[in-house]
Amino acid sequence: MRSTLVPVLVGAGIGAAVLTGSWALQTATLPPPQPGNAAGARAASWLLRHRLVESTLLVGGRVVHGRCLQTWLPGRNGSVRGALLQLDDGVTVLDAPGRTLDSEPWEPRWLAAAQLMLGGCSRILGSRIAQLVQHHPGVRVARAFAAGRPALALHVPMPGTRLTVFLAARTDRPVALRATGPRFSARSRLRFVRLTPGLLHLIEGRS
Hints:
By secondary structure, the chain is α+β, with helices and mostly antiparallel strands. It folds into 2 domains: 1-30; 35-206, outer membrane lipoprotein receptor (LolB), chain A (Clam). Helices cover 37% and strands 40% of the residues. The protein contains 5 helices and 10 strands, in the order ααβββββααβββββα.
């Protein structure tokens, strides 16, 4: 038993040394991330850690309050992970893999997608920001003001829409959004909410 264990331990030690050396070499040779990419990565982390985000939307001079929950939704082959956005004007948007459904069927699909972003649906917005910083090494941020405080403006490309995510200056926490398109312009403020079992039951009961 001991004669078998010793070579294994020696081999593991050599493997660990090689892996550590490779990691150190990779860290030394790769350039440090750009400030915009680092800020975007932290913003995506904020979003992906939270399942519930509340928002205040300003659309066409009208204020609407929203609540977006990442939860399990009924799918064609069982439950799937998705987003449930509830607005206090009666509109509900469901987003699941491969489909986006709006409670107002006459509204175009692009509007439902914009509502999901402005509503701060965390997995959707966080995943889009994460893809941006992963595939574009030179992401830039600009100094701005949001919610009356200094912030960083991060531009996130979307088909047919110009989306700007405003990040708190010190923590890179997403605090506000602005979306503009050929037919609309809207803003929103975001607030991360701790999800409790009682709150989860209340939100899902209204869907």
